[in-house]
Amino acid sequence: MDQEMELKGNAREVQDELKQMGVKLQVLELPQTTRTAQNAADAIGCEIGQIVKSIIMRTKMSSRALCVLTSGTNQVDEKKVERWIGEPIKMADPNFVKNATGFSIGGVAPVGHSNPIITLIDEDLLNYAEIWAAAGTPNAVFRLTPMELLRITRSIAIRVAKEDENE
Ligand code: 5CA
Predict the structure, then answer these.
(1) Claim: this prediction has a pTM higher than 0.85
(2) Count of CB atoms within 10 A of residue 165's CB?
(3) Which CATH architecture has domain 2-158?
């Protein structure tokens, strides 16, 4: 399609990666910014929970990158992820994110990283029929189903969200 022909830079690379994986998912470049989950929901006209945040964490001891694909309404509970990974973790800084994924914060896609990254998916994303993820730049996104996200990231869904302290 025309839109696909015009994709540039990282958005094109993400589109090429998706195509190589054999999935028919289309990267869209929007006129508005999609830098944050709220921005993306406003630009797309969907619920913020449908936005996939690609949160890059760093293991404290082995210094490996970890990608936690989180619903736009949730915050990552580091303790829940640590239990799964078996090592303390912390948020990655912007340089680490760029080196690990090839993308800058605000445009980190769930696929097409510079190196393979261990990925976990927030189970709350499974509640939606359709979700939207970043596609390499702060104004590129693509729509997919939660099952497609599981498949293209070869990942699993777990409970990662911080819960209300009263719960
Ligand atoms: N394009 C949208 C979703 S389609 C997007 O990328 N959203 S995001 O949530 O994945 O990216 C912003 C996230 O980057 C924030 O939620 C935050 O966790 C992280 N972030 C923002 N600033 C920093 C920073 N200075 N250091 C580390 N992480 C940051």
Answers:
(1) yes
(2) 5
(3) Alpha-Beta Complex (3.90)
